[in-house]
Amino acid sequence: MHLCLYISQSTVAVCCFRFMATNDLMMELQKDSIKLDEDSEKKVVKMLLKLLEDKNGEVQNLAVKCLGPLVGKVKEYQVETIVDTLCTNMLSDKEQLRDISSIGLKTVISELPPASTGSTMTANVCKKITAQLTGAIGKQEDVSVQLEALDILSDMLSRLGGTLYSFHSSILNCLLPQLTSPRLAVRKRAIIALGHLVLTCSGNIFSELMEHLLAELKRNESTSTTRTYIQCIAGISRQAGHRIGEHLEKIIPLIVQYCNVEDDELREYCFQAFESFVRRSGSFSCLWRIPQQEGTVLLLVPGGNGRKVAQALELLSCSSPAIIWCPKEIDPHIPNVMGLCLKYITFDPNYNYDNEEEEEEEMMETENGEDEEQESDDEYSDDDDISWKVRRSAAKCLEAVVSTRHDLLQDFYKTLSPVLISRFKEREENVKADIFSAYTSLLKQTLPIQSWLHASDATGKDDVPLTMLQNQVPNIVKALHKQLKEKSIKSRQGCFSLLTELANVLPGCLADHIPALVPGIVFSLADKSSSSNMRIDTLSFLHVLLCNHQPEVFHPHIKTLLPPVVACIGDPFYKITSEALLVTQQLVKVIRPLDKSCTFDAKPYVKDLFPGTLKRLKAADIDQEVKERAISCMGQIICNLGDHLSTDLQPTLKIFLERLKNEITRLTTVKALTLIASSPLKIDLRPILGEGFPILASFLRKNQRALKLSTLTALDILVKNYSDSLKPAMVESVLTELPALISENDMHVSQVAVMFLTTLAKVYPSSISKISSSILAEIFQLVHSPLLQGGALNAIIDFFQALVLTKTAAMGYSELMKHLTAPIYSSGSAGASVTLHKQAYYSVAKCVAALSSACPKEAPGVVNQFIQDVKTPKSSSAVKVLAFLSLAEMGRTMNLSAQRELKTVILEAFTSPSEEVKSAASYALGNVSVGNLKEYLPFMLKEIGSQPKRQYLLLHSLKEVISSSLADGLKPYVEDIWALLFKHCECTEEGTRNVVAECLGKLTLVNPSELLPRLKKQLSSGSPHARSTVVTAIKFTIADQPQPIDALLKGCIGDFLKTLQDPDLNVRRVALALFNSAAHNKPSLIRDLLDAVLPSLYSETKVRRELIREVEMGPFKHTVDDGLDVRKAAFECMYTLLESCLDRLDIYEYLNHVEDGLKDHYDIRMLTFIMLARLSTLCPNAVLQRLERLIEPLRATCSTKVKAGSVKQEFEKQDELKRSAMRAVAALLTIPEVEKSPVMAEFSSQIRSNPEMASLFESIQKDSASLSTTESMDMS
């Protein structure tokens, strides 16, 4: 180190020594381990500052690089020395020294620690630099000094704007005069600096800036300065659009006025300003992009100025779903802005398009005409004409309007779409690209919404824009088809991009226009001047076209389309080859569709398709993507055209066998073989089955989930379609691998494995005797698992039914029954250690019922056995529960009325001391009734009326009947059930009322048009219990899938939600539960009612003192809050609204109630912490504006200490509360710009300085990091 210093300081040392010494010094400074004492610090700083003046440029550059790491290694006063020297050097007469000092200052600024770290050095150094920079800018002596100073000031403001708070006023005063500088470069940099300043400046300074700009705009001293001021306003809007919203009322009329001035450059800036207002200003700012699932992006424009706003949430498209906030302040000006855009997008005073149109009419069918016209376009040139800039900025502004205003879609198709289509003929390439882009945005907005959130919102209004677009398709094709053969590659790419979007939005819309499009497609594929990207875009469009249209429309053009596509398969560029193989695969499906009869003769085209694909399939030294696509494409060719391949088929299948042995290509090959095996052409796979089957079997033990699943699917298809070609040894090789796959650790793999076994049992029953006991043992273990349900359970049920029908020895009905029920029957015996989960009883019962339905002769004996088990006093509760559940599952599908004692046995079980037995008996009665309504339902209704003590259990049985019976079967009994239920809807027991409500709700679904109005009438009932039952009943009519009741419900749910204002506390609670259910499962029901409902919802979030009482418990007084449950329900509704109706919320009003919740009871605070974390992602700028008020409750929670003598639960409760609060803090810290908030910086510093809080925060960050890693892992 000292040697480096000596040599680099030496004036005698030759240049190369100084360079090497400085380089070594830089390497030393970059090490974390290096520590400098005070003397060394001085020497290093002095030496580096001296080296900045070195005559050798390379030494200077190295010295500057040393400054970065040095900032973190020396004391504050040394950094100030460096900064002072650099600022002085910036004013030097020597240009080289000025430049290197400027770079040095930028380096130092970039290395200063953020203000949030609590470092005082950053603030002090920034103040020193700022004072000198503002002086240098103000002197206006040397333009180059001014430019560098403005650059550095912009850097500081963007990174450390909050730290310079006290200098904001002087910075503003320094920058404003630069807007009138004679040098345009100075003006531009001043605009950039002002843009960074407005991010962190106070409201007063922002108002001062805006007033100055408005005053200067009105003065209009010169066109040049007016341009600058408009550019400045646009720049401010782009950086801090939410702040400019309140000034738009004054700004926009001025800019509209300047649009009419005969100055093209000024007009261009006006439209750029309009675009920035539309995209960024108004009530919300900042476009955030949040990654969601693959191919999905959530776009939000959050923020705001605190006014009450009406926002409009719409999903833009399915290829990239988006949410856009529409600024409120720009709303009144949108028609005016659109009018100007539409006027000036056609503004081309130096060119006459009319002549061109006349020629076009004459030469519509003449290729030569097109070429001549193109040449005349190219010859036209006017260097002085900048009107194209006006058209381009107008097009960009229109795109901004279109992409943010989904609500105006119908208007766009009336006024904007025809104008844009007419401008597809634009002569200037760059302008044309922006017009295409604007129209593509319009198409994306039109893409029908496909999401669970809007699935049930299917009203006819979404179809109107699609119909309007359909009517305009001929005009679009007419405007574009000729351009597909233009020389300009950029124009052609724009055309294909637009047409691709059109085909995605309206599948089938181009069917009548294929003849017009094919020549353009062929031209771009065959034209030697086409770039690689041009060919890829063309192939991509062709693929979308083939996928979205019926095969018949392409049959006349196959002869023309096929040769250029096949030629692209042989292209040396792998991306073109890959895309061409994808298109070829789709073409094969078009040439010979297997899912419908087709008269088109595919045979002549096999000789074109096969050789090119085969060449790529054989090649080993090609890109991985091409290998996979070649395998898939050849798989499709064999699947659809295998009967035309004759002698080529078997050698090709041998190649597949080779690819199956390759680790890289095996997964794709398995999928291709699955496709071939499932072909209705019955391709002969015998030559490769002998070798291929064991290879497939070996894949089942590989640690690659996707490969296991694909292999099981392939084996399943092979067994179904080629069972006569299989040998026992082949099947045994697969069966050996299966036990390891059947496990509760991966239910989906287990399900597919069991489905394969079912296929074996049905198609190849002789192999079943080879099923090892270990496979069955794993299946029985799965049946007894608490995790088994859904698809996996259904697969096992199918397997048992198939297995018992094979009549294989040791796997008959009685053996299977014995294995299924053994753990339950043995659980009652002494020393039994097996205790099954409740879910396992249901699984076993379903399997028992399935076996009994497969062997109907065995069923009566089993039913009698179960009845005896229930009657026997010695039977354990577990045995009785299984017996009742099995009777329930069997009774649902078969008539058990022959069992006369069944009713008595079930009713006696209602008095059992075991709750599980009572519940199972109730379930059994309900399901047995489903199997024979005529016999059991009248009996059940009679019992409900006459047995008050059994009422609750009997009502549960009735619930099963209503839920599981067909509507037609229930209709004769509806009136009796309805009358009975209403007798019990005022029951004092809430549990009973809830069951009655569920019965009423599900019964209403049987005949909604008649029963829903009856429920509505009951709202006027004088009994609060009756009202709460009716409101709860409505909750059970709402499901997340579309239902016939939806339209009726939408018309009257508002009446049921009026109970949010009910005087009874419990009625309001259940009304909130109804609202929450609707918001979660079917938002369309309540979206239009939010303006009326939200005030009632928000009022329930308030703490009501009159509902808080003190209860004496011995010597202690305990506080009871009767309003807590209602408040919790209200906050749960608020959270649900974030996910489903965010667009309809006034986010500032919403945040007011979140703030209250942060100071409420433990349960509510836990909920609001989660809400705050979610809000940090959804609308970060709105949260930023309320940061000061939101931080204090978080700080209070994180700092709370539990009293020393408290019970363990109190400590655990407080720890969980702190963790939840810290998660909210971690979410807040992910908001961009949050570090510029002084209150957040202070809280961050407090967290770091407190060991307990720091440790907690660290663990939260680790948890979130591990969670995101897990989510992003490849599940294969």
UniProtKB/TrEMBL annotation:
One Pfam family named in its UniProt record: TPR_CAND1
Residue span(s) of domain TATA-binding protein interacting (TIP20): 1085-1247
Highest taxon above the source species: Eukaryota
Chain segments carrying region Disordered: 356-385
One GO CC term on file: nucleus
Record GO biological process: SCF complex assembly
Cellular compartment(s): Nucleus
Keywords: Acetylation, Nucleus, Repeat, Ubl conjugation pathway
InterPro entries, A to Z: ARM-like, ARM-type_fold, CAND1/CAND2, TATA-bd_TIP120
Protein family according to the UniProt entry: Belongs to the CAND family.
Record-linked PANTHER family: TIP120
Protein name listed in UniProt: Cullin associated and neddylation dissociated 2 (putative)
Species, as recorded: Apteryx owenii
